[in-house]
């Protein structure tokens, strides 16, 4: 007949064995998950998304002292697709980009007009129209878009712009990498928004 003391020892040994086995299993499982996550190539997806959404935007300031200004010589260098933003008191900013209407008009300048151009600079921005087009391609042909870009599964979201989020059900058994990028988004009226682009990647 087994004594109560011997039975207690056996139970303790079994409990300890089960606990240690669970710790080892958890350690191996978590390590394998971390390794798999690190192996997911995110740089290519990030470059692909930014390449689809971004464009170079030119910026030129103008100060009018008298009358109006002329963009004739300037447009010959920077192009005729632009949008003018007035800041009042004769101050303007001219934004240049292929997504602006080429039929925009400046103002009728005369010989007696006095105006000064400031420096010209360029900045890579995400274009709202490109987001809309990319979102449509994502929702209508996700597999084809992935193949075209040569990337893994992904989803993206612009925080504070819910209309431009895309929903993709992510399986619970996969590892997911989520990254945030501060971005500037410009629309066809040269209105600029400071947003966060979130990109999720999984296999």
C-alpha Rg (nearest Å)? 29 Å
Helix content: 25-40%
User: How far is it from the N-terminal to the C-terminal residue, by CA?
Assistant: 57 Å
Average pLDDT score: 80
Provide a short characterization of the protein structure.
The protein is built from 5 helices and 7 strands, in the order ααβαβββααβββ. It has helices spanning 4-39, 43-53, 72-78, 128-140, 142-149; strands spanning 54-66, 82-88, 91-96, 114-127, 153-159, 176-186, 192-202. It starts with a helix and ends with a strand.
Summarize the structure in words.
This protein has a seven-stranded mixed sheet. The protein has helices spanning 4-39, 43-53, 72-78, 128-140, 142-149; strands spanning 54-66, 82-88, 91-96, 114-127, 153-159, 176-186, 192-202. It is elongated and about 70 Å long. The relative contact order is 0.16. It is of the alpha+beta class. Helix content is 37%, strand content 34%. It folds into three domains: 1-39; 41-53 and 128-202, no CATH class; 55-124, no CATH class. Strand 2 (82-88) and strand 3 form a beta hairpin. The protein is built from five helices and seven strands.
How is this fold's topology laid out?
Layout: H1 4-39, H2 43-53, E1 54-66, H3 72-78, E2 82-88, E3 91-96, E4 114-127, H4 128-140, H5 142-149, E5 153-159, E6 176-186, E7 192-202
Parallel strand pairs: 4-6
Antiparallel strand pairs: 1-3, 1-4, 2-3, 5-7, 6-7
């Amino acid at each position: 007949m087994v004594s109560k003391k011997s039975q207690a020892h056996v139970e303790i040994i079994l409990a300890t064995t089960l606990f240690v086995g669970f710790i080892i299993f958890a350690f191996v499982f978590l390590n394998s998950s971390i390794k798999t996550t690190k192996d997911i190539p995110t740089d290519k997806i990030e470059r692909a998304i930014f390449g689809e959404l971004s464009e170079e935007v030119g910026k030129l300031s103008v100060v009018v002292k008298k009358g109006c200004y002329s963009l004739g010589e300037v447009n010959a260098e920077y192009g005729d697709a632009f949008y003018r933003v007035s800041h009042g008191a004769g101050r303007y900013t001219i934004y240049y980009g292929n997504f602006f209407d080429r039929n925009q008009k400046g103002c009728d300048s005369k010989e007696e007009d006095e105006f000064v151009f400031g420096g010209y600079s360029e900045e890579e921005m995400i274009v709202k129209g490109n987001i809309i087009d990319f979102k449509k391609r994502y929702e209508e042909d996700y597999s084809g878009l992935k193949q075209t870009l040569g990337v893994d599964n992904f989803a993206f979201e612009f925080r504070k712009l819910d209309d431009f989020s895309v929903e993709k059900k992510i399986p619970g058994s996969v590892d997911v990498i989520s990254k945030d990028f501060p971005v500037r988004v410009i629309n066809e009226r040269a209105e600029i928004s400071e947003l966060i682009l979130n990109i999720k990647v999984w296999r």
